[in-house]
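C1q domain-containing protein: structure tokens wanted.
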Amino acid sequence: PSNFKQTLRSQSIHPVDHNKLLFYFLLFSLDHIDIISMYNTKVAFYAALSNAGHVGPYNMDIILAFNKLYTNVGNAYNSATGFFTAPVHGVYSFQFTVCGSLFGNVGVFMLKNNQIIMHNYEWKEDAAFEYITNSVTLELFAGELIHMRLPAGSSVYDNINSHSTFSGFSHIYCC
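Answer:
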């Protein structure tokens, strides 16, 4: 219910029916708490992969944990595991850039709840730096997960200059 008084009128509540009155007031309050928490939940993160240099290629897929955390408003990104967890239902945007500097495949998967939603790769024919960048905007429900994975046979590169990054943020919108 969007208006407590309208709800009371529509339910024909008599002033003496305090239990019913409290019940509808509680429903109204909970609806507004959900709305307030949704609009006040600020989420933004930006992280780089590591200082390790080349990561991969491996003979199996691995989760990429972007562990050089620069920003993590709302603490929705776990830099130890590489997983973003949506704190509330809403619209979120994510962007990644990965760098390759070896011959062969440079590539990544982006996954939502362990299902691939994006796959980007490039076959490199030289040892020069090459970059892949992409972004996506998704509706997520509270608790849904986003993470990046390195496909088997692919490699990426990072060092102190943060060549490979992953970021995301929640959109603030109103009714």
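Residues 48 and 170 are 19 Å apart (CA to CA). The domain at 44-170 is CATH 2.60.120.40 (Jelly Rolls).

Cheers.
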